[in-house]
């Protein structure tokens, strides 16, 4: 985190945050139209459930943010708390509250991961320039680098945004080079609460793709729910029986996992290729922001190394702690 702060400070010395690195006005096109930003915004309302992480990585404390979930003040998780510092943004919950936002009088509203509707946008854009999701990515499918670049352009911090992207992409590349055995192997991230799998169109599935993993065959064909998240019937195992099966926390649903009727038949179970991520790492992967990606990598890479070493007797630490390890005979 100190390295991150140094990066923010050094970029600030090159271009003080009171002055824009890029000329204004700026125009950003999105699914509902174009946001015209006449000058560097000072008061930013973040409607994206993960967007405040991205703003904080750019050295910006939002005027207000939309809290997703978790026990932390302001909805800011451990990896971003230093960047928040003593900031006290207004916290918004649940559906987009147009009246509340109007009272804040922001000069920019951002919502790339917000589920913003066309009617929401029509009202919000009367309050301030508003950035909705891109048409190509849908409500919750935008890649982290695209979201960061958009915010860098909107706030005049493109240089810092590109520095973050270069740093993070460099780490992904180094991990891929260090683990050639992962390249082309299959991996899937599954929510333990309802056996719902994230495709590589989702931010969690895309995270695994950046490590070199492929989506298991047949996952896209399940067709239940939507293109980003597939609910897997309990009698179907093939779409999640991957070389690395990553269960993410849903309020510690270990008992449910241990009673899934066909889990014991899966190769991932028999060969010790399951990983259980706790609450913080689950949230870090689910945010996939410049602040949380390296936090996720620090936790996940050693677990992948243990699960993918070819020895079913190698214990995956988080799976042992959660109590989901299979009984593997010598």
Automatic annotation (TrEMBL):
Keywords: Ion transport, Iron, Iron transport, Lipoprotein, Signal, Transport. InterPro entries: ABC_transptr_periplasmic_BD (IPR002491), Bact_iron-sidero_bind (IPR051313). It comes from the Bacteria. Residues 43-308 form the Fe/B12 periplasmic-binding domain. GO terms for cellular component: outer membrane-bounded periplasmic space. One of its GO terms (biological process) is iron coordination entity transport. It holds the Pfam family Peripla_BP_2. Transmembrane segments: none annotated. The keyword Transport applies. It is found in: Cell envelope. The keyword Transport applies. Belongs to the bacterial solute-binding protein 8 family. PANTHER family: FERRIC ENTEROBACTIN-BINDING PERIPLASMIC PROTEIN FEPB (PTHR30532:SF24), IRON III DICITRATE-BINDING PERIPLASMIC PROTEIN (PTHR30532). This is Putative siderophore-binding lipoprotein YfiY. It comes from Shimia marina.
